[in-house]
Write a structure and sequence with these properties.
This protein has 146 residues and is of the alpha/beta class. The chain has one domain: 3-Layer(aba) Sandwich (Hypothetical Protein Ychn, Chain: A), CATH 3.40.1260. The protein is built from 7 helices and 5 strands; from the N terminus they run H-E-H-E-H-H-E-H-H-E-H-E. The protein has a 5-stranded parallel beta sheet with strand order 4-3-2-1-5, sandwiched between helices. About 8% of the residues have low confidence.
């Protein structure tokens, strides 16, 4: 290959690459950005509940960090912890008051014998496997687990 041809090809590749770098990025369509948050709380650790799960979930709703719905899903050991801890129960009550949707896995609540107590706390106790799967597949939802 002669030198002129090599230089020509190099210049073409340079300018094609340069123009690609200077073009405006494609904008993200609104529909591609999740607007709803589901927090799946599985930890039986009280500190995790107070210093992460509850703090973030409550403030996410209160401060409008998510445009639409914020949901707390109680799953596994967290259901037992919540049924026994009055401070956590009060926090969950405050979440409900500001519009956070509360639900709990019925299978887990039944394993711990706490389904009735969670229902008394205003939490919708139901089988959650299908619902969680639907949330995970839905582009409008962001699901985080603690």
């Amino acid at each position: 290959m002669n030198i002129k041809r090599t230089i020509c090809i190099s210049l073409v590749l340079f300018f094609v690459g340069f123009s690609a770098c200077t073009e405006e990025p494609e904008s993200i369509e609104e529909s591609d950005t999740p607007t709803k948050l589901a927090v799946v709380w599985t930890s039986g650790d009280r500190d995790v509940a107070l210093k992460m799960v509850f703090m973030y979930t409550y403030n996410a709703k209160k401060n409008g960090w998510w445009d639409d719905e914020v949901q707390l899903i109680v799953w596994g050991p967290s259901s037992k912890l919540l049924s026994e801890d009055e401070e956590l129960q009060e926090y969950v009550s405050n979440m409900e008051k500001i519009g956070i949707k509360l639900s709990a896995c019925k299978a887990c609540a039944d394993m711990y014998g706490v389904a009735e107590k969670l229902t008394e706390l205003g939490i919708e106790v139901k089988y959650m496997g299908t619902e969680l799967t639907d949330l995970l597949k839905d582009k409008d939802w962001k699901v985080v687990t603690f």
